[in-house]
Amino acid sequence: MINLLQLLDPQALLRVPYKRDFTPDTELRKQITRYFSEFLGQRPKAIEPLLPDVMPSFGKLRIEDGDSIRSASASGISSSAERDMSFVRVYEWQTQISYGQLERVVDCLLPKDKTLGRVSGKRRLLAIIHPCKNTRGKDASLERTGYTELANILVTDLQSVVAVVGRVKTRGKWLIVDRTGGLIHPQFVQDEEADTDSL
């Protein structure tokens, strides 16, 4: 059994179900490549061959001092289920709020290669999310925010997931129920090695 404490993210504790042999399909692998390409400022063709074929997957996580989230892959429930704890509040690159359904968390152990720069030889925990269309930039804790469908998957760092949110279906659309009250703000933690490298 894997020691889950070894995979403790500064923000989240990963929990079972754990799928050791998860292999991303072609579309997901393309989105993971896109994430690293944008993050590192490298061309996708340079990144894709460096990604591992197998990326273990987790179905649940607990945010430090906060919510428990069960991904859609762990829930086995449809998008119309009454108690669905897979919808989350996410901060994207420019600290822009968006909402979406957490599909799963993958553990991507990158090889040592100069192309990968500061993440060479490091483990990255990635959140695989189906964004709610038309919610980007809106804060459902402060204004009415809804959606009618989910967009194609988005891959982002697990630290971007900040809270679980609820949703209520009314008049053919889903309204987001965000109980954070606008009080959650992202904290991006710099790697300890990055601190020592700059000395």
Automatic annotation (TrEMBL):
Lineage: superkingdom: Eukaryota
Name of protein: Uncharacterized protein
